[in-house]
Write a structure and sequence with these properties.
The chain is an all-alpha fold. It contains twelve helices and two strands; from the N terminus they run H-H-H-H-H-H-H-H-E-E-H-H-H-H. The protein is globular.
Length: 291
């Protein structure tokens, strides 16, 4: 079918009262769902799936697609505010976003996150419409060797985020891989490292583990009153907005993240927390001021 005809049919469903209502409702709900650690976009869609019984198919797709996109952004809110990623994809935002919060620039961190996500979302949506059939055919040509190489690339990118201490990064990645082996083997179906506990047969869920690693230590710091990390910091007042000059200053890393996210997102198994960390590494390597 002609692309112009398809876009026209989509616009006919979107620019209607119920279509716009689903768009706004999906955005608001997605941000709220994404900002709640441990829920995430997939769980949010699962919880709200009964709504599809009362919506026409096209409008239901608008609602759930918007909810998913907004929830992916919503995870950055808690990552910046309380050093706890709302979803695994937001874990990389803690590295610099929370530091901006501790410096009293939380509003500016939210602005960079919001407008970078908007920029990346618009560009990747256009690319998906135009080149998905071509790129998808390339992705189907990848075999086990290529997927293994991509997996090693993602683990290496995360390991070397530790700057001058790559050994600690490698040890951390190794521990993460060992934790990931807990549960039923996907090939043989046999249990691994569950110590006879049926509750571990499904493995260690990523979201609760991230909450334990980030949220609980931060809550303890706040309770004991650690002056370096646990006390409130006076914040700069202002709207969550960027000037054109500020957005232009981050246009290069935003574009790099968009390209990396687009191509890795097309590959099965590569979406999630790997593209953000990979983008973070590339942005630091190509920046004149990586600090």
């Amino acid at each position: 079918m002609n692309l112009a005809v398809v876009l026209g049919q989509a616009a006919a469903h979107l620019f209607t009262p119920i279509g716009l209502l689903c768009l706004v409702a999906g955005t608001v709900t997605g941000i709220l769902v994404g900002a709640l650690p441990g829920i995430g976009p997939l769980s949010g869609i699962a919880l709200l799936l009964p709504l599809s019984f009362f919506l026409p198919p096209a409008e239901a797709l608008i609602f759930y697609t918007t909810l998913y996109q907004a929830a992916e952004y919503g995870g950055s809110i808690t990552a910046i505010a309380v050093s706890t990623p709302g979803s695994p994809n937001s874990a990389a935002i803690i590295l610099d976003g929370y530091q901006l919060n501790r410096a009293g620039r939380a509003a500016k961190a939210f602005a960079y996150s919001l407008w970078s996500a908007t920029y990346g979302g618009v560009i990747t949506t256009i690319l998906l419409i135009l080149v998905t059939p071509i790129v998808a055919s390339w992705a189907l040509l990848l075999g086990p060797t290529e997927y293994a190489a991509l997996g090693i690339l993602g683990l290496t990118a995360i390991a070397f985020l530790v700057g001058g201490a790559p050994r600690r990064g490698i040890i951390g990645v190794a521990i993460g891989v060992l934790i990931g082996t807990i549960g039923l083997d996907s090939v043989t179906g046999l249990p691994r490292f569950d110590f006879g506990n049926i509750l571990l047969s499904g493995g260690i869920p990523l979201a609760p583990m991230l909450i334990g690693l980030f949220a609980i230590p931060e809550a303890v710091r706040m309770l004991v009153g650690d002056r370096s990390t646990g006390t409130a910091v006076p914040q700069q007042r202002g709207r969550v907005w960027l000037t054109f000059r500020e957005f232009r200053s981050v246009l290069k890393p935003a574009s790099l993240g968009t390209v990396i996210g687009f191509f890795t997102g097309l590959l099965p198994g590569m979406a999630g927390s790997v593209p953000p960390f990979l983008s973070y590494n590339v942005a630091k390597a190509t920046s004149r001021h990586p600090e």
